[in-house]
Amino acid sequence: MAQQDLDLGEVLGVVGRAAAVAGASLDLAAHLAGRVERLVRGVVADSQEVAEHSQALYRLAADRAAAIAGVVRATPRFARVTGELLRLAAAYRVHAARSELLSPEHTVREREALHRRAAERVYDLCVELRGGVLKVGQFASSRMDLLPQPWIEALSRLQDRVPPVPFAEIAPRVEQELGAPLGELFASFDEQPIAAASLAQVHGATLHDGSRVAVKVLVPGIEEKVEADLAALSLLASVLRDSFPQADLPSIADELARSVRAELDYVREAEQLRAVARNFADDARIVVPRLHEARCSGRVLTMERIDGEPIVAFLDRCETRGEDGARERDQVLATLLDAFCTQVLRHGLFQADPHPGNFLVTADSRLALLDFGSVQRLSDEVRLAYAEVARSVLIGDPRRTAGLLYDLGFRTRDGSTEPLVEVAGLVLELFRKEAGRLADFDPQANAAAFLAALEANPVLRVPGHFVLLGRLLLTAGGLLLRYQPRIDPFRVIVPHLAH
Length: 499
Fold this sequence. Notes:
The protein is of the alpha+beta class.
């Protein structure tokens, strides 16, 4: 009990210091008291409002911290994450109060500067702490609807290669999980990883029968770090909602927490890999690695090593190879889009972390699907509902689109369904282009219109399955826009709508 009390005291101390940041604006009001009286009254009123928000923020944090303190084992980490983000929340509240006293131009400049400072601070925190914090940052970087552009620019750097955990920490985990010395388990095991990520890393190895394999290992100690990070995320979701009103942060936080926890369970990931492999068994264009069951556990997965080129590197190389390269580019991107549609609209089981690093192109131009730690299952009802949404958008039936999105669980600030039509149309605008017309699509204008629609009438509730489906849409749309293949997305999608 004493340790728990100490942990809670540490947490509340950090939360209290963070809340005090906003209250410091009262000192500014006092300093100006001898100046223009009318201006002073405005500053004092705004400062008092900010201070009151800070006190409410503190009380909320205290209540939530008291509820979870007994289960958070990595309290210093939890306190660090919570304190940093609460300080940022306070800074945004101070800016909101000050904006009433500034010209619109000055307000815009200050807000832009604040976004850049805050984004860099969070980037540094993600790089330092890794774990769930880094995973959240990587996820957020792909959500143009969630964060301002300075945040997207800063956090997108988190998609780069993560520094690997030393082999001296990885080897004991593999031996402990598989119950034998490394030399008995593998004929060879590469000390340098093939890939390193926020939660795991992958090493090349060879079995004693000569089979080349990839061994995915959960980073030692990551479980406690993730729980601390997710506790902080849950605590702060409602606090940060005020700074990003266009996002349904509690729903996003809940779905992200579920997704991240699922990535820690390799027994579940193995089941998902088998299911995806079965679903694509008859598709000669798609390859999914085979598991070596005797070398798998809850924290280690050993699977067939597939040789191939990362999809972005392959597509970049296609750009330099004239017409032959263009044909191969078009073929691979058509296969990728078709695979996405197949997973969502036919199988109801799709990769929910579909960043380009999870796709390889083999020497015979097959598409290899990798990493099934984050997989979303859709019920038949939801799967068919999304097919109906796509069909109604493609044929231009806005009333039906709005009703379907409402039935799926979307809600706007004023309860109306009309804004849902605009949002859905903008998200799927790319896939309504006719063959050969992708070059006419203006991503900046589309993004601006999308954000304007959200700000005009925020979508306050987003179903959890759409949070992860949105990642898939953004990956597909981003690759199509970047490489401009001569394919008709409409023709790829339509055959899947009858299932």
